[in-house]
Design brief:
heterodimer; A: about 270 residues; mainly alpha; about 70% helix; globular; B: about 230 residues; alpha/beta; Rossmann fold; 2 domains; six-stranded mixed sheet; 8 helices; about 35% helix; about 25% strand
Amino acid sequence: MAGGHPVGMRMRVTPALAVRSLHAELVRTRGRSRLWTVVVPAAVAAPMVITFGIAVVAESFARIPGQLSVLQVSTSNAAYWVITITVVLVAVAAADGQASDSRYRAGEYVRLALPRPWPVLVGRWWFYGMVGAAIAVGTLVAVLVALPLISPLVYGPVSVTDPIGQRLLWTVPVLAFFAAGAGVGVGALVRSPLGAVGAILLWTYVVESAAGYLPSGASLQRFMPVLNAVYATGQDTVLTPPWGIDDALLYACASFSAIFMVAAAERMIRK
Amino acid sequence: MIEISQLTKSFGGHRTAVDNVTAEFPAGSVTALLGLNGAGKTTLLRLISGLDRADGGTIAVCGRVQSRDPRLLGVHLGPDAMNPGHTVRRHLSWLAALSGIGPARVDAVLGETGLLDQRTVRIGRLSLGARQRLAIAGALLGEPRALLFDEPLNGLDIPGIVWFRCLLRRLAAAGATVVIATHLLGEVVLTADRIALLVNGRVRTLGALEQLIPAGQDTREWLEATLLECA
């Protein structure tokens, strides 16, 4: 036999190893880790602060005496910050967790215990995906329930039970789950926590918007994954993708998964 | 037992770190891997552990070609391979979770390595000796049948060195295969049954100390003279 160990010959099936990787990530991030002290609080608090801040200002304007009419906001325009901040921070958390492998030679312990890269990456996707989906649902429900209470004149029609609210309730966690996969992929490709986080934030908040300034940029923007993700939830968007909301959801999830697949393939080839 | 045959590893295609090495490390013995800096000791250990891939040759640990099972092979990665922000216990719990080992074993290993009192201390605040004990604890976690140690005595204080000496003898007595790369010849004399001397990636001398040392010659002096010949 040339080339050392025939890796995986007698290892257990991949799902069990992926669960082991998930459990290890849970143990690694337990307690006062960056995940629970910085990223998750930011993913929950930042969209709430922005959304409720806007609502308070809008409500105070609406209550100025002499207003002829007040433009009410529907559910389809209430969850923008949850989608663009919480979901993106889920990807950031996953990228940071994955890229941490390259710090303190932690990756060597991982390679000793779990030689094949696939289960390691899949386990981390599951971990950050489930955490992300849970915080996305929690934040979304809090925003949709609190908005009509904070700002009844402007956000009164917002409801968690109307058709858009119901769609948000399942699409946002689905997108958070797939965004975690993209985050793990970016973390595996970039390998530096700071670089991986920077790449995600740059893409989401700069590249997707700046693409509009390119020749035919508006057409290009319609294919951007994050724009498609926002549109897929039923949230109002200025630009619309060239397909319906269900296709946009599939497109966004496929784009996020593709990043994961590229990273996993790169790991296999490099190994 | 660890068996390696015609193992070769080169870096960049020109420097051969391990050159056609064939050796057996028997169960129930401590083998000291000796050699000057750059002789290929660490590379050989990394090849056996599976961390690096050989260009050619075979490796079998306890008869199995797949050795990356923590219950089969324990690997000491040194005192720097750990997150300084983690506590001692969290580091070992993470290793246990990665390897599918139950949490009860974590407490047992903390006790074995004398780290029980420091289990809640962050690794960044530990002395080098305590981090070395933690790295050794990581290798012991799976109660493996074969163990690889790379310079495990660096940073250990006198009680630590005596403890580690006893640990090695206890492991060998229990039937484990132990391979330890070190420069400390005094410890080799006290703990090793066998030596494997590497020179430029090749095995120059391999065998039981009692058979290698000429009659009437001091073991330490012989080892020192042999290594100086390689310089």
